[in-house]
Amino acid sequence: MKDNEMYTPDDIKGQTQTQPGRESLMDPEPIYDDTNIKGFERLKGKTAIITGGDSGIGRAVAVAFAKEGCNVSIVYNIADNDANITKASAEEYGGNVLLIKGNIKDSSFCNDVVERTINHFGGLDILINNAAEQHPQENIEDITDEQLDDTFRTNIFSMFYMTRSALKYLKEGCTIINTSSVTAYKGNASLIDYSSTKGAVTSFTRSLSANLAGRKIRVNQVAPGPIWTPLIVSTFDKAKVDSFGADTPLKRPGQPVELGEAYVFLASDSASYITGQTIHINGGHIVNG
């Protein structure tokens, strides 16, 4: 897919939503599928859990995995319509999809996600810890205890919960892929708590990879920059949405479809000697991390 097929900042002006954002209400909607890529059975017969799989990056990953022959459990919280669209899109490529609705802040729900996946598909090979929330605040004094707790529970506690449950079934050759962020490396003045959780995700990825190396379970992460997803239009004001992505070297926001292949690669046998690493997809920011 060529750069000139992607949206410029001018294309996305004039839009905000209340939380939680809905991909189906975005105009223009994010690009999550490159129909020119048909898949090469790189994940054939495998099963993946994707948190936050109903929209944004998670949707792109779910569709990309389905193209590669992977069974997918899509974990989501509220947006039923978005989840059903993702399910239908994955099924167009022959994917087998299980939708699981609930709140990953709850460790018991995370246990249930894994058990339902095992019962439905008979196994688990790939865990994608992707779900996140953010709440911009101009001053640290404006970050309430409740916001701090919610952000950390969704963005990093859930990764502990999901991984802990999944490891009962993951075996040699299985993979865990976490979604970090460019903010973990360069910070963000109005996303102090969010950036802190993404720093924790990065440390979690590196530490977990070392811990699981002996079991030959690989752990890596993708660190996105400004990507056009429902999280953006539901958390930033109009002025920030209007200029979203313009400060990158490529002068535009990224699209979810531009991340899908990175997750496929890290989940596939082609990445068999890669663990504890980060793929930066951020429009050209050099972060040296």
Automatic annotation (TrEMBL):
Coiled-coil region: none
GO biological process, one term: bile acid metabolic process
Listed GO MF terms: oxidoreductase activity, acting on CH-OH group of donors
Entries under CDD domains matching the protein: SDR_c1 (cd05355)
UniProt-listed SUPFAM superfamilies: NAD(P)-binding Rossmann-fold domains (SSF51735)
Region (Disordered) residue spans: 1-29
PROSITE patterns attached to this UniProt entry: ADH_SHORT
Top-level taxon of the source organism: Bacteria
Keyword terms, alphabetized: Oxidoreductase
Biased composition (Basic and acidic residues): 1-13
PANTHER family per the UniProt record, alphabetical: NADPH-DEPENDENT ALDEHYDE REDUCTASE 1, CHLOROPLASTIC, NADPH-DEPENDENT ALDEHYDE REDUCTASE-LIKE PROTEIN, CHLOROPLASTIC-RELATED
Recorded family membership: Belongs to the short-chain dehydrogenases/reductases (SDR) family.
UniProt-recorded name of the protein: NAD(P)-dependent dehydrogenase (Short-subunit alcohol dehydrogenase family)
Annotated source species: Sedimentibacter saalensis
